[in-house]
Amino acid sequence: MLSPKELHERRAKRNRYNITKNAQGRLRLSVHRSEKNISVQIIDDKAGKTLVSASTLEADLRKKLKTGANKEAAKAIGQLVAERAIKAGIKEVVFDRGGYIYHGRVKELAEAAREAGLSF
After folding, report:
1. 31 is in which domain, residue-wise?
2. Which terminal CB of the chain, N or C, has fewer other CB atoms within 10 Å?
3. How many folded domains does the chain comprise?
């Protein structure tokens, strides 16, 4: 029997495999969600570099948000990463939800990034 962590890693690998197969050269918007925070990165897999990132651990966001573990925080992170990406010249990405279900905070983050101008 696999542990919950191993099951999560298996889902994440399966999801990432399908993303890289269908990405067609687009950058990857990767989400990491913990109990207390949420962070997101735009990654260039060919170069192996992170181009843009945002997290609820950043000082200016910590002052604005009560907690980093709710939908409001996820929405703020989605908007912030989209603004930074557009400023960096990135408009199209592939959404990598990792091993998380597209629901709740992950869904809010994705919808906020779409509303702010990213397309995926």
Report:
1. 4-115
2. N
3. 1
